[in-house]
Amino acid sequence: MYTIGQVSEMFHIPVSTLRYYDKEGLFPGLERASGIRRFGDAELEALRVIDCLKKSGLEIKDIRQFMQWCCEGSGTYGKRRELFERQRRVVEQQLRQMEKTLSMIRFKCWYYEQALQDGSEERVTRMMPDHLPAEIQRLYDDARS
Q1: Which domain holds residue 7?
Q2: Where are the alpha helices (DSSP H) in the chain?
Q3: Are residues 65 and 14 located together in one domain of the fold?
Q4: Domain count across the chain
Q5: Residue 56: C-alpha distances to residues 44, 49, 102 (Å)
Q6: Roughly what angle, to the nearest 10 degrees, separates helices 77-118 and 134-144?
Q7: Residues 97 and 65 occupy one common structural domain
Q8: For residues 122 and 118, what is the distance between their CA atoms, to the nearest angstrom?
Q9: pLDDT of residue 21
Q10: pLDDT digits over 3-58, tens only?
């Protein structure tokens, strides 16, 4: 069993956030000894899932619903799977967008490297939009798709 302070340090999460999660019902089986929260392995695993769902963009109310489904047992497996399927699609879309962003950044790094070497942007801008080196062309096109 772990204290709230230990869990805070382990997960690099403020104690106030852990208290908030508890208040929101995200740790339904959390034990207390003399009013002190005691986190067990189940709460640590729940915290890992909560962190994952938060990072995927899920709101606390939806995470609370997920935790409620967990308490309800095997009859909610379908709902839980659908929640993760939906969030998988959200994260995959975010990744696609980030890949486009990274392509633009890589293109611009190359662009300014060339401009620095040449002392101007003239040569590089003449290559655009479709006479760039093959790899750079892929980045340029990907960033604009």
Answers
A1: 1-72
A2: 4-11, 15-23, 41-55, 60-72, 77-118, 122-127, 134-144
A3: yes
A4: 2
A5: 19, 11, 19
A6: 130
A7: no
A8: 8
A9: 95
A10: 999 999 999 999 999 999 999 999 988 999 888 999 999 999 999 999 999 999 99
Largest alpha-carbon pair distance within the chain?
Answer: 74
pTM above 0.85, yes or no: no
Domain boundary among 38, 72, 106: 72
For residue 29, the model assigns a pLDDT of 87
Q: Is residue 83 part of a domain?
A: no
pLDDT tens digits, 87-142: 999 999 999 999 999 999 999 999 999 999 999 999 999 999 999 999 999 999 99
Domain presence at residue 55: yes
Distance between CA atoms of residues 1 and 3, nearest Å? 7
- Residues 11 and 41 sit within 8 Å (Cβ to Cβ): no
Length of the chain: 145
Predicted confidence at residue 78, as pLDDT, reads: 98
1 and 46 housed in the same domain: yes
